[in-house]
Write a structure and sequence with these properties.
The complex is a heterodimer of chains A (112) and B (115). Chain A is mainly β. Helices cover 0% and strands 51% of the residues of chain A. Chain A is built from no helices and eleven strands. In chain A, the strands form two sheets. In chain A, strands 2, 4, 5, 6, 9, 10 and 11 form a seven-stranded mixed sheet that branches. A four-stranded antiparallel sheet of chain A has the order 1-3-8-7, with no helix packed on it. Chain A starts with a strand and ends with a strand. The model of chain A has no long low-confidence stretch (mean pLDDT 93). Helices cover 0% and strands 54% of the residues of chain B. Chain B contains no helices and twelve strands. In chain B, the strands form three sheets. In chain B, strands 2, 5, 6, 10, 11 and 12 form a six-stranded mixed sheet that branches. In chain B, strand 5 and strand 6 form a beta hairpin. The mean pLDDT of chain B is 93. The chains are: A mainly beta (112), B mainly beta (115).
Chain lengths: 112, 115
């Protein structure tokens, strides 16, 4: 059983640029959630995708957007990067018993 | 909306001593409860979960937690810690509903196990 994978591991971008982060869900899972974890804080929910449709969104501006593909992998896109977007971005997948989520290792984004 | 409060930001503890990490939550609906561990520069690993049934939940690595509905708490305990338990621990809740289960996390408790 393959776990949740994310790419890239690390990324450095300049303020104003755009970034795309990728996530492959665990085998058999149809739901992907994205979280932002700033340094020293708990993860904050960005949004969730269920069977290719957005299924809930946290308190993040529209420049944070996403996609889910037919194989249930997912992308997180952030436009017009700001310094405060520097964080660890975590992807989590879950199945029909959606009480439990499995996390990937994260992508560390640094905005300079 | 839910919220989670982890009452201790840091907990120093000696090796082989017991540890308790406190978690209180607020929600107007029924919730699932989770504890996750995060080792340096890594993602989150599920330690244990409460979905229903027995209020005493046993997890991996010798951890257990007790759900107390009247006190809206879900404290995590381990009777004897190891150096390898040094990590950040997060309590989280999600609503019990048919579709969608966003997790709301507490701010984390950093456990430092000293020899």
């Amino acid at each position: 059983e393959t776990g949740v994978t994310q790419s890239p591991t690390h990324l450095i971008k300049t303020r104003g640029q755009q970034v795309t982060l990728r996530c492959s869900s665990q085998s058999g899972h149809n739901t992907v959630s994205w979280y932002q974890q700033a340094l020293g804080q708990g993860p904050q929910f960005i949004f969730q995708y269920y069977r290719e449709e957005e299924n809930g969104r946290g308190n993040f501006p529209p420049r944070f957007s996403g996609l889910q593909f037919p194989n249930y992998s997912s992308e997180l896109n952030v436009n017009a990067l700001e310094l405060d977007d520097s964080a660890l971005y975590l992807c989590a997948s879950s199945g029909e018993n959606r009480g439990e989520q499995y996390f990937g290792p994260g992508t560390r984004l640094t905005v300079t | 909306a839910q919220s989670v409060t982890q009452l201790d930001s840091q907990v120093p503890v000696f090796e082989e001593a017991p540890v308790e990490l406190r978690c209180n939550y607020s929600s107007s609906v029924s919730v699932y409860l989770f504890w996750y561990v995060q080792y340096p520069n890594q993602g989150l690993q599920l330690l244990l979960k409460y979905l229903s049934g027995s209020t005493l939940v046993k997890g991996i690595n010798g951890f257990e937690a007790e759900f107390n509905k009247s006190q809206t708490s879900f404290h995590l305990r381990k009777p004897s810690v190891h150096i390898s338990d040094t990590a950040e621990y997060f309590c989280a809740v999600s609503e019990v509903k048919a579709a969608g289960n966003k997790l709301t996390f507490g701010g984390g408790t950093r456990v430092l196990v000293k020899p």
